[in-house]
Amino acid sequence: xxxxxxxxxxxxxxxxxxxxxxxxxxxxxxxxxxxxRNPVSSLxxxxxxxxxxxxxxxxxxxxxxxxxxxxxxxxxxxxxxFIDEGRSEQAIQSLITxxxxxxxxxxxxxxxxxxxxxxxxTLSGFGDALSYLDSNPxxxxxxxxxxxxxxxxxxxxxxxxKLQQQPEVSMGRLDIEWLERLQAGVKLLQRTVSAVAALLxxxxxxxxxxxxxxxxxxxxxxxxxxxLVGATEGFxxxxxxxxxxxxxxxxxxxxxxxxxLLVWYLDGALAELLGLYGSQISMQALTFGELxxxxxxxxxxxxxxxxxxxxxxxRAIEPQ
Length: 320
Known about the structure:
single chain, alpha+beta, four-stranded antiparallel β-sheet, 10 helices, 68% helix, 7% strand, elongated
């Protein structure tokens, strides 16, 4: 006497949940096996996806490093306050004390006239010539570093206007135009990343959708047989959805590898360039958290592309 097939409705609730996950794991592994049975075409598709995903990821890395450089150069917003020549040291110290309590100020340093002259003699190369001067022509300087909130070009200018109102200050100077240009470039790069990412996301969805369409056409006869024996639509389409997810996951990992190799290749040249400006910054690659985000986005795009293709083409296949 043959045993009757197991009825799902007779399983307890926990059993149905376990069977649900078991079926999904089985179909996910089966879809991975299907990819390994066609290694050449599968690897070519994954490589195309990896390169496509690496382009917006590379731009994002570029934006991240540009922002890092901008933040590291926030001290370039340092304000130089030139003191009136007739002010005494007591008056200058009183000015420094007042400036230190400003909420916009992070740090204050003072260079007196003698120190300014010594520094100028060292840096200018005219040390012998300056020794013939009757008096020191250089003023005392108070260097003011804004807080991070006021290190932006607009905030630093507001602080400069406030500092110039102090009676001991003859003139204030803020060299920050180049920082404004850098920040404008970073904003342009951010918009470029968004535009390129949108186009390449569409390309990834189309590539995966077309790949799944070809897989559906190759298994047309098998799908017709499954529909004849009463297989549900979810059971038939699930392997194709997992195939799209696998494409996305492996493509995302390949993109991460490409980006890290690119960062490693360019890091030496960037360090040499920044070294000319007295900066010791190295390029930042994608972190492990960003890898997970990249793989998550790529797997979602793989699922989306396969879902659109499956919904469109599976319904068109009906047993004759």
